[in-house]
Design goal:
Elements lengths: L17 H9 L7 H12 L3 E4 L6 H12 L9 E4 L3 H14 L7 E4 L5 H8 L5 E4 L1 H9 L10 E4 L2 H4 L2 H12 L6 E6 L4 H10 L4 E4 L6
Helix pairs in contact: 2-3, 3-4, 6-8
The structure holds adenosine-5'-diphosphate.
């Protein structure tokens, strides 16, 4: 994989599936940002990634595009989970995923707290291919076996500094117990304090570290 970031880089060079690529352009993205250039090909390859860049540099776009390319549209099972610390962030990410996958036949669902559990259970029965949500409800649904983790091949932790901080850490660890050992794990964050980097050793497999210092879209 090329490590260099180029001004003239095109999304066409990043191994993105054609139907996802169409969605990227239709969404209005023209050129990949630095974090997108550096992390999309690695996510598509299936490797674990730890990516750090300031907010507003295109991290959401990066993991959404990469993760979408990993989905097998023919496999009508849950294949990817994206975990965020808040309902609002989960909603925003889901909207981006819907836009970028608008030319692909890929299903998705929001799994967050303070919504109807019964409705959540009914919707999970359709085996949405992508789940975007918050830690507590996701763990509840996994433990009660409504969210099936058997076919999960990508797990994304966004705002990883918050997700792995005191309040959420145990919930994330519990979720990880239900995830296959060979599941790709991608961690995105604006900041990565040492104590978080240290605990990633426990559950990540030789992650590729991607750091972008300064760039604003
Ligand atoms: P982050 O997750 O790092 O905060 P986002 O992915 O939300 O950043 O991107 C910040 C803003 O820039 C959003 O409005 C998004 O739509 C836009 N954006 C992201 N990537 C690109 C791109 N390659 N080209 C143009 N705009 C982009």
């Amino acid at each position: 994989m090329s490590e260099s970031v180029r001004e003239d880089m095109s999304f066409d060079e990043l191994n993105i599936n054609d139907n996802i690529l169409r969605g990227v352009y239709a969404y209005g993205f023209e050129k990949p940002s630095a974090i997108q250039q550096k992390s999309i090909p690695t996510i598509i390859e299936g490797k674990d990634v730890i990516a750090q860049a300031q907010s507003g540099t295109g991290k959401t776009g990066a993991f959404s595009i990469g993760m979408l390319c990993r989905i097998d549209p023919e496999l009508k099972k849950t294949q990817s989970i994206i975990i965020l610390p808040t309902h609002e962030l989960a909603n925003q990410v889901l909207l981006v995923i819907k836009e970028i996958s608008s030319y692909a036949n890929i299903t998705n669902m929001l799994v967050v707290g303070k919504t109807s559990v019964q409705q959540c259970i009914r919707d999970l029965d359709n085996n949405p291919q992508i789940i975007v949500g918050t830690p507590g409800r996701i763990l509840d649904m996994i433990q009660s076996k409504y969210l099936i983790t058997e076919n999960i091949n990508t797990l994304i932790l966004d705002e990883a500094d918050e997700i792995l901080s005191f309040g959420f850490k145990d919930t994330i660890y519990e979720i990880l117990q239900f995830i296959n050992k060979n599941t790709q794990i991608c961690l995105f964050s604006a900041t990565l304090p040492d104590e978080i980097l240290e605990i990633t050793d426990k559950f990540m497999n030789n992650p590729e570290k991607v750091l972008v210092k300064k760039e604003q879209l």
